Amino acid sequence: MKKSLKNVSPGLDGLTVKHLKANLDIFLPIITDFLTNSLNQAIVPTEMKTSLLRPVYKKGNHKEIENYRHIAILPTISKISDIYFAELLDNFLDMKKVIIKEQYGYRRNQGAPDLLEQFCDTVNGALNNHLHVLVCFVDFSKAFDSINHTKLLDVLDDMGIRGSVMEWLRNYLNGRKCTVKVANHFSKKKGNEKSCTTRECPGT
User: Fold this and answer.
1) Within 13 Å and on the Cβ side, how many CA atoms surround 19?
2) Helix H or strand E segment including 88
3) Residue-wise pLDDT tens digits, 22-37
4) CA pseudo-torsion sign 144, 147, 153, 157
5) Which of 11, 89, 20, 21 shows the shortest CA–CA distance to 45?
6) Helices H, strands E: what count in the chain?
7) Rounded distance, CA 101 to CA 18, Å?
8) 185 forms bridges with which residues in the sheet?
9) Are 164 and 35 in contact (CB under 8 A)?
10) How many other CB atoms sit within 10 Å of the CB of residue 201?
11) What's this model's pTM, rounded to 2 decimal places?
């Protein structure tokens, strides 16, 4: 977990990863108790569900909001919680053999190079056997923003995720808020469950 934490800007808690790592002997027992209680009680504190959005200029007219993308930064403790829970979930799915071996995205010790290797082997094998190869690439725009949380939880329930873990997930997804920071100015906190739980939030 320590290696998974990136030294990025702190969230609203002001706690940096660098400071946490430098004082790990102090923080570790506190964080351990917190994570255990959070999961057992199925409660995610509101402060951990509030992300800090920083607009980053892409291109074009500086005055047009469409020319900016946002970076969502969660509190450092929330990042640790996300990594911890993701590892628990990953271990459970591995144990139950739920996910097929061809799933390379967001899997431990697997990634794009493994996918490309299998893809090339499959294509080359077909061509060597004088077969035609047809490939369809699909790129979903804002795929994470389009996830239906109710359906997602139903799928996890079918996989065997129940009890306090399921309730923790429900709590995690509900009541999320964002606030935009420009220079030293903050916007009012707004609830937006979809945009505050995309890939840009957890683990950011």
Assistant:
1) 9
2) helix 76-96
3) 888 999 999 999 999 9
4) negative
5) 11
6) 6, 5
7) 36
8) 182
9) no
10) 24
11) 0.73
